[in-house]
TrEMBL record:
PANTHER family: MYOSIN VII, XV, MYOSIN VIIA. This is Myosin VIIA. InterPro entries: FERM/acyl-CoA-bd_prot_sf (IPR014352), FERM_2 (IPR035963), FERM_central (IPR019748), FERM_domain (IPR000299), Unconventional_Myosin_ATPase (IPR051567). Residues 1-121 form the FERM domain. It comes from the Eukaryota. PROSITE patterns: FERM_3. Gene3D superfamilies: 1.20.80.10. Pfam families: FERM_M. GO terms for cellular component: cytoplasm.
Length: 121
């Protein structure tokens, strides 16, 4: 699978990040191609939720029904839906004030750090 990260720096071209890079990496992340710790998965799940719904908290009750949209497939079975919800909502609340575009760039930045760290191993 081709990686974006060869010459890309998240935030440098926010238009490309918002329109292209985020939507290219999101499916790869959800399929489990990026190996992340559980804390990173919580953080990234909160960022994905923010991209989808921005500040709309009315969808919080639906988080247990949408794990495949927020959590990598290989991680879903590790916690109950309520634990995923509780952790994602807590981190979502800590990120208050972030726009969709900022959330996309944060998502890409987190994945880039994970990718660079794994490539050093």
């Amino acid at each position: 699978m081709k990686k974006l990260w060869t010459n890309i720096m998240p935030g440098k071209d926010s238009m490309a990040d918002s329109i292209f890079h985020y939507y290219q990496e999101l499916p790869k992340y959800l399929r489990g191609y990026h190996k992340c710790s559980r804390d990173e998965v919580f953080q990234l799940g909160a960022l994905i939720y923010r991209v989808k719904f921005e500040e709309d908290k009315s969808q919080f009750p639906n988080i247990p029904e949408m794990p495949k949209e927020l959590i990598p497939q290989d991680q879903i079975r590790h916690l109950s839906p309520d634990n995923w919800k509780r952790s994602i909502v807590a981190l979502f609340n800590k990120q208050s004030g972030k726009t969709r575009e900022e959330a996309k760039i944060s998502f890409l930045s987190h994945l880039q750090v994970v990718y660079i760290w794994l490539s050093l191993l």
